[in-house]
Amino acid sequence: MSLLSIQNLKMYFPVRGGVLMRSVASCKAVDGISLDVAKGETVGLVGESGCGKTTLGKAIVRLLKPTEGSISFDGQDITHAGHHALRPMRRHVQMIFQDPAESLNPRHTVRDILEEPFIVQKIGSKAERQTWIAELLDKVGLSSSAADRFPFEFSGGQRQRIGIARAIALKPKLIVCDEPVSALDVSVQSQVLNLLLELQKEMGLSYLFIAHGLNVVKHMSDRVAVMYLGKIMELAPAGELYHNPRHAYSKALLDAIPVPDPALRRPRQLLQGDVPSPINPPEGCAFGHRMNHPRWKESVGMDLTLKEVAPGHWVQPCPCCTS
Amino acid sequence: MMMSTPDSILEVRDLVTAFDTDAGRMTAVDGVSFSVPRGKTLGIVGESGCGKSVTAFSITRLLPQPHGQILGGSIRFEGKDLVTLPLAEMQALRGSAISMIFQEPMTALNPVQTVGRQLGEAILLHEKCSRQAVLSRSIEMLQRVRIPAPETRIHEYPHQLSGGMRQRVMIAMALINKPRLLIADEPTTALDVTVQAQILALISDLQKEMGMSVILITHDLGVIAETCDEVIVMYAGRVVERASVYDLFARPRHAYTRGLLASIPRLDHLPKTRLPAIPGNVPSIENLLPGCRFAERSGLPHSPEQLRIRPTFIEAAPGHWVENCPACTA
Questions:
Q1: Residues A133, A147: contact at Cβ < 8 Å?
Q2: A-chain residues within 8 Å CB-CB of B201?
Q3: Given B193, B219, B277, which is nearest A191 (Cβ)?
Q4: Region class of A201: left (phi > 0), else alpha (psi between -120 and 50), else beta
Q5: Which residues on chain A are in Cβ contact (under 8 Å) with B263?
Q6: What is the complex's ipTM, to 2 decimals?
Q7: Digit-coded pLDDT (tens) for A210-257
Q8: Contact A197/B at CB under 8 A
Q9: For residues B99 and B92, what is the distance between their CA atoms, to the nearest angstrom?
C-alpha cells in the first residue's frame, strides 16, 4: 500500500474583483492530479514556474485546503481534517523549503529552531531534547557549536542543513522537498543531495522532490511526474522518462537542459513563450495550445486521463503532443 | 606579455579589488588577469563568493562606494585604462560601449517606470534624439529581443511582465546603444530551464548580429559549455585556470575545476548514488591563505611552502593556463 495517495486533487484559488470583491474567476493551480508515493520512494515533480508544483506540495502537507479530490496518508483520509486532527499527522509529513534564509526564523538560534518541533508535539523532557538536538546536528553534518548560533551566521548550504535537521527531527515518513537545492552552488548542491540520499536510506524516508532542475530530479527520483498548468502530462520511472519521453512537453524540458560538455553542443528546438495563466486555462491539451499545434483542436472535449503506455509509464493521451 | 592575444577588446592585468570594512581591508579580487577576444564569449565560473561579480563591477567601475576600491592592476578597454579613466568618460562608456545585464531583472528594473521610459533613458543619456526617434528605436529593440506586441508592451510596467520577458527588457536596455562589450552577470540563474535556453540563444544571436564581445558570469557549467569560447575559473578571488572551453571540459588541470565538473548531476549518472562533492565552503575573505587557497578543501596533501607561497600562473599547454600548485594539478 502506498504511503501517500492523492486522487483527482484540485486546488482552486478564487480571483476576487469588482466592488464587492466577489469571486469572479478561479485560478486553477492544481487541476485534477492523482499520484501515489510508496514507502521509501522518491517521486520527482518537474515543470516550469507557475505549473502548480509548489501548490501541490503545500496541499499535501495540508498547508492548504484542497478544493476537490482526496489526500490520504498512511491509510487515513486527511483531505478535510481540521487543525486538531492534523496534529498527529504533521509529525510524519514535513517540508524542506527552497530558500533556507527565509524559512528559518532569524531571531531564533539553531537550538530554538530544532527544539520547536518537539515542543509543538509535546515530546521529551528538556534534557532529552538537548541530546536529540545534538544528534540531529551531527546527523546533518554540523558541529555541536552550531546550536547557539543564528541562521545568518551560516552559509546557504549550512542553512539548508539546518532546514533538513528540522524536517527530520520528528522522524517523519514523508518529506516534501520544494526546490531544496536550487539556491545553492553546484558543489554545495551535491553535498546536500548526498545528505538527503543518506537520510533516506537510514530512515526509510519517502520524498516528494520538487525541482525545475531536471538533472537533479533524475538523480534523486525513482519516478518522475512532469507537470504542466496544474496537470500531470507524463509519469514514468526516472530512467524511462529520460530515455524515452513520450509527451512533447517532457521532450521540450529535457531538450532545454544545458549539457555540461561543449563537444555535445547542438541546435535546439526552443520552447517559445511562457506558461499561460492558470486563471483561464485553455480547453483541451494546454501544451498543444501553447505550441499552436495543428491537431490541438482534436484534444478539446477529449478524455485526457493518463493512459499507461508501458509498465508504469503514464502519458496524457492528447493527439497533439504524443503522436 | 602574459596571455596577450592580438585582438582582444578587454585586457585585465593583475586586478586587485578590496573592500574597507570594520574588520579591516578585505581583498575580494586578488591579482586577476584575463582578456576577452573580440567578438567572442568569455565565461567566468566559480562558486558564490569567489569574486566573479566583483570582477565585473570593477570593469564597469560600479563598486559600492566608498568601501569598494581598485587597489592595483589595469583594465584596458580598446586601449584605454578604465581604472584611471576620469569618471565622466567612464560614464560615457557605460551603457553605450560597455553594458551590463544583472541576475534579477525585477530588482534591476525600475518598478514605477514603464518599459519605454527606461529604454528611452538609456538612449537619451548618450545622445540627443527626438521623442519620435526614441520611441521607434525602443520598439525596434524590443522586437529584436523577440518581445511579442512591442507597441503595447512598451507602455507596461515591469510587474506586468513575466520573468523571461523582464530579462528580455533588460537585454534590450543593455543593447540599445550597440555596446561592443556586454557583461552578463548570472543572466539566467533566476529563470526556468526553458526560458534560460531562450535567453541564451537570444544573447548569442544578438552577439552574432552585432559583433559584440560578451563576458558571461555564471556558476552553471552547463551554461558555460553551451555558450562560451574561453573560460576562466575563479576561486577565492583568484583565477585558478584559464582555457578554451573545449580544453577545459576535456582536460581540466586544477583540482577545483575537476571538483566542479564532477559534482554536476548528469543525466547518464546512476540515479540515487552518491555524487562527488567538494567538501566545505568557499573560505570567507577574512582568512585566506597566502599560498594555494584550495588546499583546505581539496583533500590533497600540501607542503608548508605550498600554503605559504602563492603559486605562479603558468601556461601548461598552448592556451591552457593554470595556477601551478603541484598538489592541485597533480
A1: yes
A2: 268, 270
A3: B277
A4: alpha
A5: 186-187, 189-190
A6: 0.84
A7: 988 788 999 999 999 999 999 999 999 999 999 999 999 999 999 888
A8: yes
A9: 11
CB pairs under 8 A between A and B: 133
Query: Which DSSP category does B212 fall into?
Result: -
pLDDT at A26: 86
Domains of chain B: which residue ranges? Answer: 1-86+179-318, 98-178
Chain B residue at shortest CA distance from A192: B277
- Give the whole-number percent of chain A exceeding pLDDT 90: 63
Give the architecture (CATH level 2) of B1-86+179-318. 3-Layer(aba) Sandwich (3.40)
Which residue matches cell numbers 499527522? A89
For the stretch B234-243, pLDDT in tens is 999 999 999 9
Q: How many CB atoms lie within 10 A of CB B315?
A: 14
Q: Name residues whose C-beta falls within 8 Å of residue B11's C-beta, 6 or more positions apart in sequence.
A: B4, B35, B36, B74, B75, B76
- What's the pTM? 0.89
**Residue A152 at interface with chain B, using a CB cutoff of 8 Å:** no
Q: Which distant-in-sequence residues (6+ apart) come within 8 Å of B312 by Cβ?
A: B323, B324
CA pair distance B206, B199, nearest whole angstrom: 11
C-alpha B305: how far from its chain's center? 32
Q: Which of B192, B282, B285, B286 is the best residue to mutate to test the A interface, defined by the most A CB atoms within 10 Å of its own CB?
A: B192
Of A155, A158, A242, the CB nearest to B267: A242
Provide the pLDDT for residue B289. Answer: 85
